[in-house]
Amino acid sequence: MFFLQKGLILLLVMGSSFLALTAMITDYWATIPSKSLHMGLFRICDQHKSCNSLVGTDNPKNLLIAVFVIGMFFLLPCGILEVWYARKGRLGTLLFVGAISCLQVILTFAGVVSGAVLISDFLKMEVFYFSWSFALGWISVIISAALVGLSFYINKVEPRSHSPTGTEGPVANETNREVQVAVIPVPETTVCDLPVQLNPSI
Q1: Which CATH class is domain 3-160?
Q2: What UniProt keywords apply to this chain's record, in alphabetical order (predicted)?
């Protein structure tokens, strides 16, 4: 039950985490066409792959690193366990996954926005365009938000219990509680109806 949906949750966890990491480590947050330059959160490079390190971008980098750590060490194990137990019943970690994913959305959003602000300030005298690394950051935000919604939805609709016969939920619980009582009629007898045996020795 809900095996495919929980498999999708696992894919969303991995997707959001790795996209945030890829956005952080790549050098294409912005491009400067007039000078053939491109830059990321770590460095700015020219077309000859000669790069200079950037300073002052620790805040967005730390936020996106936190997103990756949360995804790999908290959400990924929960997602694997949910998929593993999906055919056996309800594990009950989806509420935790949804709550932690909310934190992941906030951190990813803050990291992408703060990175965009820093790059815009650094290149305020240049004509530049945001590039695909920046887009990956926003895709990570969207995927994390989808993870929140799907986790809370499945947690709400998934039956609270699992029956070996395949019947789940409150109906199964009520059925299991039903007790059938068979009433066997017993004929009424009186003392007069009992056979009397006389003792000949009297």
Answers
A1: mainly alpha
A2: Membrane, Transmembrane, Transmembrane helix
